[in-house]
Amino acid sequence: MDIEKAREYCIAKKGCEECFPFDDVTLVFKVMGKMFAVLSLDNPDMIILKCDAVYALELREKYSAVEPAFHFNKKYWNQIWFGSDVPDELLCSLIDHSLDEVVKKFTKKMREEYAGSN
């Protein structure tokens, strides 16, 4: 996978919006205003994703390409290097997992709104 394919996969997610809230090189993907993925145009070789805390540790132990994310809560956020030992299918699954982690923290009202969105 590369940055273009990762962006295409993220932006295709239900309710996804992309923005540059931090600077003009950090592309953030949000759903209902909550961040689930980050791509850096300055460092196009990785993606930052939210993860269940236990699963995050398991991934870091198993794959050299998975590391705690710099500038994020390292308990829940991983940075994953493209073109390494993480297969594309797993990377897609991890993007889905990140989105699921965000959605499950929504309030009931937000979940209902998200469920009804296109």
Automatic annotation (TrEMBL):
Keywords: DNA-binding
Domain of life: Bacteria
DNA-binding found in the keyword field: yes
Keyword GTP-binding in record: no
InterPro entries: YjbR (IPR007351), YjbR-like_sf (IPR038056), YjbR/MT2646/Rv2570-like (IPR058532)
Pfam (any one): YjbR
SUPFAM superfamilies: YjbR-like
Example GO molecular function: DNA binding
PANTHER family xref list: CYTOPLASMIC PROTEIN, CYTOPLASMIC PROTEIN-RELATED
Protein name: MmcQ/YjbR family DNA-binding protein
Organism encoding this protein: Xylanibacter rodentium
